[in-house]
Amino acid sequence: MNKHAAIFAYIGTQTDGSSEGIYVYSMNPSTGELEYLSSAAAGINPTYLAIHPSKRYLYAANTIEGEGLISSFSIDPLKGRLTFMNSQPSGGSKPVHLLVDGTGKFVLAGNFGDGSVCVLPIQADGSLGAMTDFIRHSGSSVHPTRQQGPRVHSVTLDPAGRYAVAAEYGADQLRVYQLDAERGKLLPSAVPSMTVAAGSGPRHAVFHPNERWVYVINELGNTLMNYDYDSDQGILHLKETHATLPEGYAGPSFCADVHVHPDGTFVYGSNRGHNSIVIYTVEPNTGMLQLVGHEPTLGRAPRSFIIDPTGRYLYAAHQDTDNIVAFRLNRQTGTLRPTGHSIKVPMPVCIKMISLL
Questions:
Q1: How far apart, in whole angstroms, are the C-alpha atoms of residue 113 and residue 83?
Q2: Under 8 Å between Cβ of 157 and 164
Q3: What three-state secondary structure class fits 226?
Q4: 0.90 exceeded by pTM
Q5: How many angstroms separate the Cα of 273 from the Cα of each of 17, 24, 132, 291?
Q6: Among 145, 150, 242, 331, whose CB has the most other CB atoms within 10 angstroms?
Q7: pLDDT tens, residue by residue, 316-336
Q8: Are residues 351 and 11 in contact, defined by beta-carbon separation less than 8 angstroms?
Q9: Contact 299, 316 (CB under 8 A)
């Protein structure tokens, strides 16, 4: 396999054990196989990753109990190798999610430890400047141990880059902010907060490519919520909620990740405990979902997964069994089939991919 393949995979990990930080692999588009290229020491727990629109820089959330950090790296366009540039405080503890806005000017991050969000400016060389905004949430919900205070689990921008949705896991809220992309400020939206069912624990949100629909996966409730989206005002209207677990399953399980296929035809979510990917078809006119089925992920705790840039493969990253498993994706039915390829990575938490084709 060519080590200079045009598709690179970046894997964020927890560093409690043998992890070396962030791992870099190349992908063979013909087989889906991943081949190790390099690793980068990236501080404590470089768990969640985000890639700059230029594909020249990568950012990592260092999940630390005390003062969290956001780190920046440059990307070698030929070999995918990462070179550390700098870090900036996230303003809170345990940052678990981040993204780069579409203009490439700002990083937005969510701190799980204290329920806050921050905005960091990106300098001309790709490094990070001191934060331009910081907002701490308040509130709690019904779970006796996991919702005693605010816990931001993700921040997601709409496709136009106008509104940011913060999944407030601890308070069962979706907080919506308008992004001032000139000053790096988060401003109140027309409807700044939307309540979800008590005990749901909203974790990740994803926008459909057409910008009309939003899907939110709930960790504690094991449900997937489907919203209509008013892109003019940043308002979400709930229209349906689906169970992510098979009927009759009574074991422990917690949802983690959610993605829409690049062509908008399918939605996928991961179940940790049931250890599966749930698959839905998207009705093209309404965005309504219909269950296709569940695919075992061949590992424990699929905390993260990704659909590759070609839309042909899905990779499930298992935090508890230190492996990432490749599946071939059927573009007509949405179903998954193991390719037989897998790799060993210590405690993988996030996987991101870029294509330099």
A1: 28
A2: yes
A3: strand
A4: yes
A5: 22, 27, 39, 19
A6: 150
A7: 999 999 999 999 999 999 999
A8: yes
A9: yes
